[in-house]
Amino acid sequence: MDSIKHYFQAGGWVMWPLLALSLASIAVIIERALSYRTLAHVAPRLLTQVSQLVDQGRFEEAHKMCIGQPGPVAACLATVIQHRQMPVEDIERNVQEVGEDYFIKLEKYLPLLDTTTTISPLLGLLGTLFGMIGTFQAIAAAKNSGANDSILSGVGEALYATATGLTIAVVCFVAYNYFNARQRRATAEMEQSATKLINLLRAQSPRKETVGVA
After folding, report:
1. Residue 10 in this model has a pLDDT that exceeds 80
2. What is the rounded distance in angstroms from the CA atom of residue 187 to the CA atom of residue 80?
3. pTM for the whole structure
4. In this predicted structure, what is the pLDDT of residue 25?
5. Cβ-count burial of 116 within 10 angstroms (0-12 exposed, 13-18 middle, 19+ buried)?
6. Are 25 and 113 in contact (CB under 8 A)?
7. Which of 67, 134, 150, 175 is most buried, with most CB under 10 Å away?
């Protein structure tokens, strides 16, 4: 505990904003990790089950199945089934609106991780610069060689802020890219699943201008 306290104090005042950023980032990472659990690989299985029900004309059962599942894929499939009597263009527009709503939800808080990745090293560097300024002032004020040890110690301590900032930035960078990859994959699965179901409905009514019949 004493070593942590010494490390924190040695970094200077910038350790406080770095601490705030690190705590906020940890909270975002945990919240997003729990939220993204709903994006498990259920899309292929759900699409297969829903397609079978739709192919049999059991639209209500298919719709209830989608509503009972979490995630953007289920929401888009439910939208397709709900608006199956509309023209294809209208169905696609409704699906796009649902997709955009989910995209906003998936992107929630991620800009904070991106900002932390950028600003943490800069804050760390700023703290180090202030520490080095203090060290050089000590050098200028030194009157004997016995002060060399304290000067070298001050140089080492001045780097604590940079090390802390870089550590926070690396963690946030990895988390941000991971969640971005999950977001892109979820968007792709959502679009592909909706398109396949729309094509199935179109195949069921090739002579009609609207997709499907109730």
Report:
1. no
2. 16
3. 0.77
4. 96
5. buried
6. yes
7. 175
What is the token pair recorded at 98? 């649902």
Q: Which residue has the tokens 């808080």?
A: 109
46 closest CA partner among 29, 25, 63, 31: 63
- Retrieve residue 190's tokens: 């959502």
Three-state secondary structure of 148-168: HHHHHHHHHHHCHHHHHHHHH
* pLDDT for residue 153: 59
Q: Please, which residues have CB within 8 angstroms of residue 59's CB and are 6 or more apart in sequence?
A: 53, 81, 84, 212, 214
b/e string for 174-194 if b means 16 or more Cβ within 10 A? Answer: ebbeebeebbeebbebbbebb
Split at pLDDT 50, 70, 90, the class of 14 is: confident
Q: How confident is the model at residue 37 (pLDDT cuts 50, 70, 90)?
A: confident
Model confidence at 135: pLDDT above 80: no
- Report how far Cα 112 is from the mean position of its chain's Cα atoms: 9
Tokens for 137, please give them: 């002032």
